[in-house]
Design goal:
EC number: 2.7.11.1
CATH class of the largest domain: Mainly Alpha
CATH architecture of the largest domain: Orthogonal Bundle
Largest sheet: 6 strands, antiparallel
Structural class: alpha+beta
Strand order of the largest sheet: 1-2-3-4-6-5
Number of helices: 9
InterPro entries: Kinase-like_dom_sf, Prot_kinase_dom, Protein_kinase_ATP_BS, Tyr_kinase_cat_dom
Protein name: non-specific serine/threonine protein kinase
Catalytic activity: L-threonyl-[protein] + ATP = O-phospho-L-threonyl-[protein] + ADP + H(+); L-seryl-[protein] + ATP = O-phospho-L-seryl-[protein] + ADP + H(+)
Radius of gyration: 20 Å
Number of strands: 11
CATH superfamily of the largest domain: Transferase(Phosphotransferase) domain 1
GO molecular function: ATP binding; protein serine/threonine kinase activity; protein tyrosine kinase activity
Oligomer: single chain
Helix content: 25-40%
């Protein structure tokens, strides 16, 4: 990417300011985050006086077919999904400032913030219990024919012990294909394949983040997670299957069964 395009993207994709009003109804409170395709804000609905989330398609992405396709997919999927642990779509808005999705505001803490900002530490038992809660939500998605494809720690939220999943910008129907899959490296292909296995693979990394939260680094030698984490052989086998290192899980239900069978051992 040339320096000129980077400058153009920086100027064009500058976030909206606090106090900006979208569609005469949504007043920007604060910036939540910026992703590769979207910019997310907390806003006040001036009609209901409730907080909502506005997800704006980056202006530079509005000119790209891939960007418009991602926005349309997220709008379609969120409009279809009815689940108390997934934000509901209120409406989509086309404003002079851009394209926006208006969604529920999930007021909780991402696991990224809990681990890296708040220094939360999770035991093996706690990590597996959290994983099972995430599996419950993901299983419902898979039953509805949807693959999330981005189950990372910034997109999984703890709201008083209840798990919520956000950011469906990369989600797809199971019967869809990703025309760019052949351009990805091996790890990205595993994460982005339009199959349930991609979500299981992502949850393998999610579980490792939880387990590493209570790990104290010893020495400077770089080691694999299998060498560093004091895990039992059965748990290592579960994670290896999640990461498709040795075998793989064909369904999220198969993973759930194995974790449920293993969990009593840790208590």
């Amino acid at each position: 990417m040339s320096w000129f395009y980077q400058l153009y993207e920086y100027v064009k994709d500058r976030p909206l300011k606090e106090g900006d009003v979208i569609d005469h109804q949504y007043k920007i409170q604060t910036l939540l985050g910026m992703g590769s395709y979207g910019i997310t804000y907390v806003a006040t609905d001036l009609v209901t006086d409730e907080s909502v989330v506005l997800k704006q398609l980056r202006p530079t992405k509005q000119k790209l077919e891939r960007g418009k396709r991602s926005f349309q997919y997220e709008c379609e999927l969120l409009g279809f999904i009815q689940h108390p642990q997934i934000p509901s779509l209120h409406r989509s808005v086309q404003d002079k400032k851009g394209s926006f999705l208006i969604m529920d505001y999930v007021k909780g803490h991402t696991f990224e913030d809990l681990i890296f900002r708040d220094d939360r530490r999770y035991s093996e038992s706690e990590s597996l219990t959290i994983l099972l809660k995430v599996i419950d939500v993901v299983s419902d998605l898979h039953d509805q024919g949807i693959v999330h494809r981005d189950l990372r720690i910034p997109n999984i939220i703890d709201v008083g012990g209840t798990i919520h999943i956000i950011d469906f910008g990369l989600a797809r129907w199971k019967h869809d294909t990703d025309p760019d899959i052949h351009t990805y490296d091996v790890e990205k292909r595993l994460m982005r394949s339009v199959t349930v296995k991609s979500d299981i693979y992502a949850l393998g990394h999610f579980l490792l983040f939880l387990l590493y939260s209570s790990y104290e680094t010893e020495g400077t030698e770089e080691k694999s997670w299998e060498q560093e984490l004091p895990l039992s052989v059965p748990l290592k086998q579960i994670i290896r299957r999640m990461l498709q290192i040795e075998g793989e899980y064909e369904s999220i239900g198969d993973l759930q069964v194995d974790v449920l069978h293993y969990l009593p051992i840790t208590k």
